[in-house]
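Retro notes (design track)

What went well: tokenization of the new backbones is finally stable.
What didn't: we kept losing track of which sequence belonged to which structure.
Fix going forward: every design gets posted as structure first, then sequence, in one message. First example under the new rule, 680 residues:
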């Protein structure tokens, strides 16, 4: 929070005009007072008001430039007359006043046009652009009238001031990859699925994947939620990708549809999971030569060997990978990079991206937890052998068969009882795969409650697991593993209750004495979290690490503490979602592309800086009252495979929308674009 000269942002009323700076009031919001480490901001103007940080700002020129930004957008859109023609009128009249040629009648006309646009524009950008303009004309009327009465330009009209604008939307802001969601939904609505996919691939190369297994944080910040229920954003995303591959079309790439000419730069990428693939994709588009090193015999990382076929069909994910290959990216599989190779990479490549993921399962931390006990099986290894067999017919090796008492060359749990400890996507994959592997009883033990496990995964994932017969025991934790001759026999499970904090803080989990239960099991599969294997990093590099043992970056440019070595995805943040890994890698690829071309300088674009500012400010307002839209239009639900069929195979569970459903759902989108602008 910072002191501001003037603010109407989100209805706050701060007016320090005429007061010394020491007496200025602080804003309640994370406004971008400091634009970047090199410069401060003079003002911020957006859909919900205006904030001024420098009392010498030219408010007339500020209003004019904001109107100019909207006019450029409205000319490209042109979907409604109030938006298009209103934008032109706003800019023309404000510029007329700013250059010293305006009249009082122009001010009156501006206010009329603003109010008309607020009422009649088709989408939010046209409705909200007038908001800060009216604020400025109301609170700084004397300044506008001075330009009119003196017939002189505004004080900085002929001076160079940087005005940096960014188009955003609540859903785009919430998406870690900042996908242009309204654009791809509009493509679906208009049955221009090619346009829909092009909009997605601007910042998201894995359209098949994130159209199926994304936790869709965008839906949590969809403005439609304030009216009835959020748009089914994730399910609409897959339609463009499915259209491309189902019709045998070539790959739709951003820009001109093909990569730039080679620029003579090379980058090494360690890991071919979502972060590695994304890095390679966007670097290749920029003409950078990319070599991707992958330890596994297959590409795709944890989405391939960790996410089950019924959630993410390999054939679809393979298409996302082929889109990366289509740009000429070179893949070296079955190759675990060594520390010596990393040292050599500094000579052979212009930069290196570490995107090696987190593939070491963490322990439950209970008594007698020993890896040599048969039936104790880490979630990552368990899912590896499930998926390698189901997707590639790669059988489980004999040493694993022996350790895990498997009767065949693949994971067969017929007649067994499986307990999994966790509460995220990995644990959900474990329990649902166990059902499909024939287990007679499958139990999920979770320390928190049902609401939290749904928040950690998705509503659909949890309820599909319940339908399939998974038992969830909440507020529980394994206290001890019981074995006989190193063969797991049972678990002692403690029960907990939530006890309110008398001081109003977060309720605490307190063990219920005497409530410990012994549950007979054949397998305990810990899926509480994962850690990274950094054995390939030279010790003398002494890369800085976070407190949770991941590679430390500043979370903006993704360079580690060693120049030229970047990190993104799970190995940088810890276990995260696919879309988070993609978002990090997209930003990192952008930084690396400039880094290798400008002599090793780390820079962010204005667009990226604005993304970071807007995310801190939060574009979505959960308290906003939505008007002008018909409430109660039902959210579409796609058909899923019957539970009595899907429990016994790995067919894709979700069929996706029909064309009619897709159009109906896309028509619910309120197209909530906004314009934000900083003057500096």
């Amino acid at each position: 929070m910072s002191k501001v000269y003037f603010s109407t942002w989100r209805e706050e009323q701060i007016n320090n005009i005429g007061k010394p700076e020491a007496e200025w009031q602080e804003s309640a919001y994370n406004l971008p007072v400091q634009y970047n480490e090199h410069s401060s901001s003079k003002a911020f103007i957006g859909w919900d008001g205006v904030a001024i940080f420098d009392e010498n700002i030219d408010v007339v020129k500020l209003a004019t430039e904001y109107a100019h930004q909207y006019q450029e957008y409205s000319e490209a859109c042109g979907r409604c007359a109030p938006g298009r023609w209103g934008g032109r009128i706003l800019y023309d009249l404000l510029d007329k006043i700013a250059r010293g040629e305006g009249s009082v009648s122009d001010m009156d006309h501006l206010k009329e046009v603003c109010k008309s646009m607020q009422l009649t524009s088709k989408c939010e950008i046209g409705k909200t652009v007038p908001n800060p303009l009216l604020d400025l004309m109301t609170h700084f009327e004397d300044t506008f009238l001075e330009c009119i009465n003196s017939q002189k330009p505004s004080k900085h009209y002929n001076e160079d001031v940087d005005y940096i604008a960014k188009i955003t939307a609540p859903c785009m802001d919430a998406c870690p990859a900042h996908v242009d969601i309204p654009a791809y939904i509009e493509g679906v609505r208009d049955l221009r699925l090619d346009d829909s996919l092009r909009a997605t691939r601007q910042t998201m190369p894995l359209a098949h994947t994130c159209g199926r297994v994304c936790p869709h944080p965008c839906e949590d910040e969809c403005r439609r939620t304030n009216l009835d229920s959020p748009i089914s954003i994730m399910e609409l995303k897959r339609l463009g990708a499915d259209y491309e591959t189902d019709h045998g079309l070539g790959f739709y790439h951003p820009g001109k549809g093909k990569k730039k000419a080679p620029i003579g730069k090379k980058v090494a990428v360690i890991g071919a999971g979502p972060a590695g693939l994304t890095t390679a994709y966007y670097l290749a588009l920029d003409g950078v030569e990319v070599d991707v090193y992958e330890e596994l015999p297959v590409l795709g990382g944890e989405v391939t060997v960790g996410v089950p076929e019924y959630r993410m069909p390999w054939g679809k994910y393979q298409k996302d990978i082929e889109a990366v290959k289509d740009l000429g990216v070179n893949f070296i599989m079955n190759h675990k990079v060594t520390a010596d190779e990393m040292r050599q990479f500094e000579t052979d490549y212009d930069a290196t991206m570490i995107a090696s993921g987190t593939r070491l399962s963490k322990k439950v931390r209970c008594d007698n937890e020993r890896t040599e006990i048969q039936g104790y099986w880490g979630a990552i290894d368990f899912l590896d052998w499930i998926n390698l067999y189901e997707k590639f017919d790669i059988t489980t090796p004999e040493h694993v068969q022996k350790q895990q008492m498997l009767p065949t060359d693949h994971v067969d749990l017929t007649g067994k009882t499986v307990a999994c400890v966790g509460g995220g996507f990995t644990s959900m994959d474990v329990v649902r795969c166990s059902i499909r592997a024939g287990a007679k009883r499958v139990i999920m033990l979770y320390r928190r409650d049902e609401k939290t496990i749904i928040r950690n995964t998705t509503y659909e994932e949890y309820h599909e697991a319940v339908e399939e017969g998974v038992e969830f025991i909440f507020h529980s934790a394994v206290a001890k593993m019981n074995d006989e001759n190193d063969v797991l026999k049972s678990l002692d499970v403690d029960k907990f209750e939530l006890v309110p904090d008398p001081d109003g803080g977060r309720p605490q989990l307190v063990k219920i004495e005497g409530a410990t239960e012994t549950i007979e099991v054949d397998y305990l599969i810990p899926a509480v979290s994962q850690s990274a294997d950094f054995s390939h990093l030279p010790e003398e590099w002494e890369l800085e690490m976070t407190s949770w043992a991941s590679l430390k970056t500043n979370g903006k440019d993704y360079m580690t503490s060693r120049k030229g070595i970047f990190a993104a995805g799970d190995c940088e943040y810890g276990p995260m979602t696919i879309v988070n890994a993609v978002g990090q890698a997209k930003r990192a690829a952008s930084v690396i592309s400039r880094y290798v071309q400008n002599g090793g300088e780390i820079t962010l674009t204005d667009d990226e800086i604005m993304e970071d500012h807007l995310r801190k400010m939060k574009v979505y307002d959960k308290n906003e009252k939505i008007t002008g839209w018909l409430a109660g239009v039902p959210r579409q639900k796609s058909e899923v495979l019957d539970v009595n069929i899907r429990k016994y195979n790995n067919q894709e569970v979700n069929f996706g929308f029909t064309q009619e459903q897709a159009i109906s759902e896309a028509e619910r989108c309120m197209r909530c674009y906004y314009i934000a602008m900083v003057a500096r």
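Added context from the reviewer: The chain has a mean pLDDT of 96.
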